[in-house]
Every structure is written in structure tokens, then in C-alpha cells.
Write a structure and sequence with these properties.
- The protein has a six-stranded mixed β-sheet, with helices on both faces. It has a two-stranded antiparallel ribbon with strand order 1-2. Strands 5-6 form a two-stranded antiparallel ribbon.
- It has 181 residues and is an alpha/beta fold.
- The mean pLDDT is 92.
- It is 27% helix and 35% strand.
- It starts with a helix and ends with a strand.
Length: 181
């Protein structure tokens, strides 16, 4: 398997969730055990020596690989959820997305100052959700925060929105119009 093969297997859904958006559907990879294994193993190799104690998966596709990665890293898993999904006391942040506003939440006891946290989501495009996730996680003052996504759409230049000391990585970087980088 190669990154080029993964790109070929990626489903694109035009005009979802609204007209003009080209949705990258990574669930096509999750259905294929070889694709899923390649992604999880590559991310594990990237973070196995970073001392990760918690992996935060961003709702909802970030839960799938995030939980598998937390297991492999011998770390805890923290869901970052949309409002109303968490049963215990929570902290939240509102943010602007490319097609409106949204809010994400975490349990208030999710992270301690001793934690090294990896935030994982499927896609980095305009950066709204992942930047908000980084701000929310950083409000707990952990030792270190890493941000990771499976796909980064580089034409949006969203890395510039993160703090300089936050390492942002992607497994596959593509310009939405040119293909794999």
C-alpha cells in the first residue's frame, strides 16, 4: 500500500454538507482493513517515542483512528464532542467553521498538567475544528500538545493558525486541486 493508493481509494462527495464543499470521506479507508492498518501503524510510528499520555479524538471520525492509536500508544482516550453528548461536567469552546459556527466540549477532568496530548482528527482543511480543539486542550495546561490529521488540504494554509510551539502533522498532504504532496 502507498499513500498514492490511499488517495486513489478516497471517496470525494461533492456539495456535502453544503454546495461548494468537496467532502473527503475517509470512511472508505476505514472499511478496508489494509488501509486502516497502514494509517494506524504509520501514526503509531510517528508518535511512539513522544511520551503521549492522552489521545483526544475529534468527533466523530477522529474517534476511530484516535482510539486505536491511544490503545497502541498505551495512552488514555478523550473524546472531543459536539454539545450535549457528554454526561459529566464539561468545558467548551465556540468556533467558526467554513459553513457556520459550532461548539466542542470535553469533560472538565480529561487532562492534567502532567499529560502529553495528541489531538487527532481525520482532516485539516480550514482549521476551525482542530484549532478550536487545540485551544480547548491547551486550556488544561498540559506539558505538550501535538496535533495530527490523516489528510491535510494544504491549499487552505491552516497550519499558520496554530501556535508556533504546537507540532502539526498530517499523514497525507494534498492540495485539493493538484493531488498528493
Amino acid at each position: 500500500m502507498s499513500k498514492q493508493s490511499l488517495i486513489k481509494n478516497l471517496r470525494n462527495i461533492p456539495d456535502y454538507p453544503m454546495k461548494g464543499v468537496q467532502f473527503k470521506d475517509v470512511t472508505s479507508w476505514f472499511m478496508n482493513k489494509a488501509d486502516l492498518a497502514e494509517i494506524v501503524e504509520a501514526l503509531y510510528d510517528e508518535y511512539k517515542d513522544k511520551g503521549i499520555t492522552k489521545v483526544c479524538g475529534v468527533e466523530s471520525r477522529g474517534f476511530i483512528v484516535g482510539a486505536a492509536l491511544a490503545y497502541k500508544l498505551n495512552a488514555g482516550f478523550i473524546p472531543i464532542r459536539k454539545p450535549g453528548k457528554l454526561p459529566y461536567e464539561k468545558v467548551s469552546i465556540e468556533y467558526k467553521k467554513e459553513y457556520g459556527f459550532d461548539r466542542i466540549e470535553m469533560h472538565k477532568d480529561s487532562i492534567t498538567p502532567d499529560d502529553v496530548v495528541l489531538i487527532h482528527d481525520d482532516l485539516l482543511a480550514t482549521g476551525g475544528t482542530l484549532v478550536a480543539s487545540e485551544k480547548l486542550v491547551s486550556s488544561f495546561n498540559p506539558k505538550k500538545v501535538y496535533v495530527n490529521c490523516i489528510i491535510e488540504l494544504t491549499n487552505f494554509h491552516s497550519r499558520e493558525k496554530f501556535p508556533a510551539d504546537c507540532q502539526v502533522d498530517s499523514f497525507i498532504a494534498i492540495d485539493e486541486f493538484d493531488g498528493i504532496e
